[in-house]
Amino acid sequence: MSNESVVAVIGVSGFVGRGLPKLLRERGFGVLGLSRSGGGEVVGVERWQSVAAMDFAGCHAVVNLAGESIDRRWSAANRKKFHDSRIGVTRRVVELMRNLPVDQRPKVLVNASAVGIYGDRGEEELDERSAMGKGYLADLCREWEEVAMEAEALGVRVVRLRIGVVLGRGGSAFEKLVRVMKTGLGGKLGHGRQWMPWIHLHDLRRAIVEAVADERMSGAVNAVAPMGERNADFTQKFAKRLRRPAILPVPAFALKLVLGGFGGVLLASQKVRPAVLESLGFYFCHADFESALDDLLGAG
Questions:
Q1: How far apart are CA 282 and CA 297, in angstroms?
Q2: CA angle 55-117-68, nearest 5°?
Q3: What angle do CA 175, 180, 184 make, to 5 degrees?
Q4: Domain total for the chain?
Q5: Is the distance from CB of 113 to CB of 144 less than 8 angstroms?
Q6: Does residue 8 fall inside a structural domain?
Q7: Distance CA 114, CA 127 (A)
């Protein structure tokens, strides 16, 4: 398969990335897998490269999913990891594109970002035109996106996917929720009225493939389900599906004490709409939380 139809996926061995090759191949794309080790067992990857020595000259697209998980304390050492794995890797991707001859540059860069860019916004309805928020995570995402957008000056179509909480088997968020809920102690976080933007793993992967294939898609794109949930409802529905009570609310001060800055993220409210995906006719297989739970935990 020629490079013209190849998609280079950075982070293809990760939770989101490892399911992309199958979907991309179904759309006629070949897959170049980029990982730290330079190899792996992901089905559908035709060639492998190390991220340290990546070369995507002539590839149709680059999908950049690199980024250390932020669900840990935001110590100085961890903040450096967050920055280097996001801004550092993205800056290197753009520099590699800049150094390629124009006819060898990828046509598309699909770069991960997060809904954390909006900050804590209460009841405000947020779409891709909404202003960015304040705080450490918003600033991190803003810099991340600004670096990705530099590729636009090189003639590359850039899609910045602002991803919500990803629900899927094997994922950190989902597995932790299942463990906590099964104890019967998984109650609301803080007051529980905050909005939680989420997306089913399968829909996120499909949105990434559409971002590669659909030339109409560019700029910021909210990768969230169209029907968000307040935290109290989210935890109640989750616990009910597992046939467990959700009786022990977690006080805000306890979250911040244990998790530091990340505790504030869990308490933030973001009522995010996937306006761009909806305007382009994207079909969500799991548009509502009950549908996602049916798929991940089985019908009630």
A1: 25
A2: 45
A3: 140
A4: 1
A5: yes
A6: yes
A7: 13
Q: What is the CATH number of the domain that holds 30?
A: 3.40.50.720
CA dist 215 and 205 (Å) reads 17
| Contact indicator for 190, 248 with CB cutoff of 8 Å | no
What does the block give as tokens for 145?
Answer: 């996106």
How far apart are the C-alpha atoms of 200 and 197, rounded to whole Å? 11
Backbone dihedral region for residue 249 (phi beyond 0: left; psi -120 to 50: alpha; all else: beta)? beta
Average of pLDDT values for 99-120?
97
**Listed range (7-11, 36-40, 190-194, 207-211) with the worst mean pLDDT:** 36-40
Taking only the tens place, the pLDDT of each residue in 161-175 is 999 999 999 888 888
Task: Using the structure block, give the residue that is written with the tokens 């529980």.
Answer: 192
- Residue numbers of the domain that contains 72: 3-167+197-225+272-284
Distances (CA, A) of 288 to 36, 228, 267: 35, 8, 21
